[in-house]
Design goal:
The chain is an alpha+beta fold. It is built from eight helices and 20 strands. It folds into two domains: 225 residues, 3-Layer(aba) Sandwich (Rossmann fold); 123 residues, OB fold (Dihydrolipoamide Acetyltransferase, E2P), CATH 2.40.50.140. Helix 5 links the parallel strand 7 and strand 8.
């Protein structure tokens, strides 16, 4: 298999269908050998961008560089890009071997080369024993592996994966994403992976880009998007977040005043960052919120809000509470240990917000 790793760069790429802008001024660089995820809701433009890289879509503005070379006018078959589709797109009438060999036959490789390369690709995905089976005799996970083998056998410069795990059940998805990552590391292939599943992106990718309505919102590692989202959209899409809209009323370096809609004025005992006075969203994750009995002695380093439990969900490792504070409902997750009893709906509680874990985001 080829070991030369390539970079991928989108510079000021825009694409419209008629008056509808689908991608708006996309600037993105994927490093050689990187496993990179494009994450976003349906209709965000992530699959359009992937298909554009493969050459199935044409952008009207900008440049698409692979290894520093502009491929904007190169037809798909000449790009040497491998793509795995959501539905695997296997030929049902062909054996596994012939499915994997298809691209090599098209390239007029010798029979010996085909035997050797297909054998190596099937070994890579652990399916040597299935070479003579038909796709309908395989499980979903095995079909997925055949699709991968068929793609990597042509030794592409780039591997593009379009929601490749969405047709599998949850346990198999977890297993397959580990296999995907292992395979990608072994081959050293620069890989772009499209998904709307944040867990999938966070567990597999070196870095990820968050798209919404054709606009690149944020690029970075999973932890940077989770811990330091740049806006309300990213905070709400990557993980679960409490989002309180309101106004910053003052910030003097010691304390910060925030007037939250539905709750009222709050004074945070430490500056979250150095915000502008004016409209903002206060974001914090449920697992950073402490939940206590109302009259229990509490630690002064947190901001405490009185509330009433509306509902509780036991999730195994954690218990999740929805707590009404004023007119707002906040979510708090508490780690579960054997013998720990749940707060019942109607319980009066206090929620402790950890200032270092809060983010003030532009609205």
């Amino acid at each position: 298999m080829s070991t030369h790793k390539v970079s991928l760069e989108a510079r000021h790429i825009s694409l419209s269908y008629g008056p509808t802008e689908v991608l708006k001024d996309i600037n993105l660089r994927v490093e050689p050998g990187e496993f990179f995820a494009l994450l976003g809701p349906s209709g965000s433009g992530k699959s359009t961008l992937l298909r554009l890289i493969a050459g199935f879509n044409r952008h009207q503005k900008g440049e698409l560089l692979v290894d520093g070379q502009d491929l904007s006018n190169t037809p798909p078959h000449a790009r040497n890009v491998g793509m795995v589709f959501q539905n695997y797109a296997l030929w049902p009438h062909m054996s596994v071997f012939d499915n994997v060999a298809f691209g090599l036959v098209e390239r007029r490789e010798t029979r010996d080369a085909i035997q050797r390369k297909v054998g190596a690709a099937l070994e890579l995905v652990g399916l040597q024993a299935y070479a003579q089976r038909r796709p309908n005799q395989l499980s979903g996970g095995q079909q997925q592996r055949v699709a991968l083998a068929r793609t990597v056998v042509i030794e592409p410069k780039l591997l593009l994966l379009d929601e490749p795990l969405s047709n599998l059940d949850k346990n198999l998805r977890v297993q397959m994403r580990e296999e995907l990552k292992h395979l990608q590391r072994k081959l050293g292939l620069t890989t772009l992976f499209v998904t709307h599943d944040q867990e999938e992106a966070m567990t597999t990718a070196d870095r990820m880009a968050m798209l919404d309505k054709g606009v690149l919102q944020q690029v970075g590692s999973a932890t940077s998007l989770f811990d330091f989202p740049v806006n309300r959209f990213v905070a709400g899409f990557v993980g679960t977040a409490n989002l309180l809209d309101g106004e910053v009323t003052h910030a003097n370096g010691e304390t910060l005043g925030f007037h939250a809609q539905g709750i009222g004025p709050m004074t945070l005992p430490c500056p979250v960052d150095v915000p502008q006075v004016g409209p903002a969203t206060l974001a914090f994750r449920p697992h950073t919120v402490s939940i206590r009995v109302r009259d229990e002695h509490v630690d002064a380093s947190r901001l405490w809000l009185d509330g009433r439990v509306e509902s509780s969900e036991f999730m195994g490792e954690t218990s999740r509470y929805r707590v009404r504070v004023g007119e707002a409902v906040l979510v708090a997750n508490q780690p579960h240990f054997a013998g720990l009893s749940l707060f019942m709906p109607g319980s009066d509680v206090r929620l402790g917000l950890e200032c270092t874990q809060m983010r003030l985001l532009p609205r």
